Amino acid sequence: MTTLRGGVRPYTLNAAGIALSALLALPEGGGTPRSTILAIHGRGMRAAYWNSFVPVATALGHAVLAVDRPGYGESANLLPEGQRLAEQAQTLHAALKEHAAAHDIGAGVFLLGHSDGGKVALHTAATDGGLPLLGLDASGVGYRYNPEALHFPSTLGGGATKLNWGPLNLYPRGTFQASRTLLSPTPPRESAETLHWPAQYEELAGRVRIPVRLTFAEHEAWWHLDAPTLSAMTSRLTAAPSVAVDHLPAAGHNISLGHTAPAYHLRVLTFLEDCLAAARS
């Protein structure tokens, strides 16, 4: 099997008959992972969005399973219309079961999602999949959209640059050219659900029973981030043992591609340590 930079290797999951392409990285130095991080990319991206996160996580003893969501990558031909977000969560649970049958997942699975991947992470947390879930960190996903986002332009097109990136100086030189290799068409079923997210969130939030951390970039433009809206969002997570909201300065929507990605990734892993401690207690 080909190993890419940073110990990442291509990996295929069988999710109840659906082949999902993924990237798998095991803990640096080998040994049993302390946990397995399921990293879920956003709209119009691919699993490699998480490449800069992987070495930080594996150096601290975690395995990272970055998956191409249903309708992306290897599953695009089988699912040309994609899947609804709730269906994606079911598929990911099936994929996790398959993975856990062949690999030690450590203390459990930690959900890490960005943008629409954060929505899928929340759906996954609200669905009983039979495996222990440790916590959830979602960036770039809020509750109510900004009016300027109501036309939902696609990544890098239709006027979406400000929404998806914010000020361009927040990203290293060459990011936009390099990121084109991460892009993938957004499946129609996923796009069709975008408008319905606020109602979906209201329905699923009360079923999330793991610690939650929500991260928003300083230059996040997709969402209303005023205090009343964020309070309304967090107040719906009634079954979560803890809920935290973090704001990351000098960052745009695609946090993990920007200059502040290392700071964000360390905050994610600090939160994971808290989740591991809670699971042991």
SS strand fraction = 15-25%
Show unreliable segments: none
How many beta strands in the DSSP annotation?
8
**What is the alpha-carbon Rg in Å?**
17 Å
What is the 3D shape? globular
Order of helices and strands: EEEHEHEHEHHHHEHEH
Mean pLDDT over all positions: 92
Helix coverage percent: 25-40%
- How many DSSP H or I helices? 9
Strand line-up across the major sheet: 1-2-4-3-5-6-7-8
Distance between the termini: 39 Å
Given helix and strand content, the structural type is alpha/beta
| Biggest beta sheet attributes | 8 strands, mixed
What does this structure look like?
The chain is α/β, with parallel strands linked by helices and 281 residues long. It has 9 helices and 8 strands. A hairpin with a 2-residue loop joins strand 1 and strand 2 (18-25). Helix 2 packs across helix 3.
